[in-house]
Amino acid sequence: MSYPHSLNPLQRELLGDVARLYALPNVRSAPLNSTLRFGLIADPQYADIDADIAKNLYYRHALQKLPQAIEALNRQPLDFVVTLGDLVDRDWESFVAILPVYERLHHPHAVVLGNHDAQTLTQHLNDAAALPKSYYAFGLQGWRFIVYDGNDISLYCNALNGDDRAQAEAMLADLSERQQPQAKPWNGAVGQQQLKWIEQQLQEAQRQGENVVVFGHYPLAPHNSHNLLNGGELAELFAAYRVKGCFSGHDHRGGYARIGETGFYTLKGMLDGADTVPFAVVEIEGDTLRVTGYGGETSHLFPPV
């Protein structure tokens, strides 16, 4: 288990119950059986605001959709569940409404913080404390799971995050000049310190003979307007180390790409649609990775037969 940026006392005090989002998942010491199985949820994005019907975004419906997904996941023998970011869309009170829903989840829960989460957190902290970093790793016997923080270098950082926001502005300007599609203010990047930590985790996993799975909010591939600002660099790194799979949210349309022996999976957003409840269960046994989609989520089998 590794969490190199634990909350300081002031951050913990200001965040209150929301600080639990930075806790490492309480996973078991070993998988339930020979097949690793975990659940995935992306972008519930709750807010107490009216739906944007033109864009098919139903903010309040998370309080009805998320319990359905959790109930279905509770019925399956899973090692853990990951929410791939954007638990809320805006407003601090949104966390107060959505966190009790997760108390119904019976499985260990790993949280990835999305751009809307980060913006809401920063507004609440109001320059009294820095936006906390949220990259970490956890393990099961023979498996290492790495969570990257795409808000590390972003416009969501505040004045106490050093030059992180300035770095994001410089990266956005450079990408815009080169007409790269991910040059959008709602995207962030992984900073150099985090990149170094990620490669150290990959090297250690390689030495230990561990399989690696990666989770993040911002997609790394295929290349589009929702990618991590430096997603190409990270995608190449994960492919070079033959990561089993990389899972993200953020792009509510979903998506899939393959680089070398690594599959990059983007889950559909739960926010979209009045009634659809997309989520997935991933099973990995040997060299086979199977994503079973529910509620409109796409299923995948890798390698394809």
Explain what the structure shows.
With 305 residues, the protein is α/β, with parallel strands linked by helices. The protein has one domain: Metallo-dependent phosphatases (Purple Acid Phosphatase, chain A, domain 2, 4-Layer Sandwich), CATH 3.60.21. The protein has seven helices and twelve strands. The strands form two sheets. Strands 3-2-1-10-11-12 form a six-stranded mixed β-sheet, with no helix packed on it. The protein has a six-stranded mixed β-sheet with strand order 4-5-6-7-9-8. Helix 2 packs parallel to helix 3 (93-102). The mean pLDDT is 96.
How much helicity do the residues have? 25-40%
The CATH superfamily label reads Metallo-dependent phosphatases
Query: Could you report the average pLDDT, rounded to the nearest whole number?
Result: 96
What is the CATH architecture annotation? 4-Layer Sandwich
Record field, number of beta strands: 12
Give the C-alpha Rg. Answer: 18 Å
> How much of the polypeptide forms β-strand, as a percent range?
15-25%
Q: What overall geometry do the principal axes of the alpha carbons give? A: globular
How many structurally independent domains? 1
Quick one: CATH class? Alpha Beta
Poorly predicted segments: none
CATH topology name, in short, is Purple Acid Phosphatase, chain A, domain 2
Helix-and-strand structural type: alpha/beta
Largest beta sheet, briefly?
6 strands, mixed
Tally of individual helices: 7
Strand order of the largest sheet: 3-2-1-10-11-12
H/E element string?
HEHEHEHEEHHEHEEEEEE
Distance between the termini: 35 Å
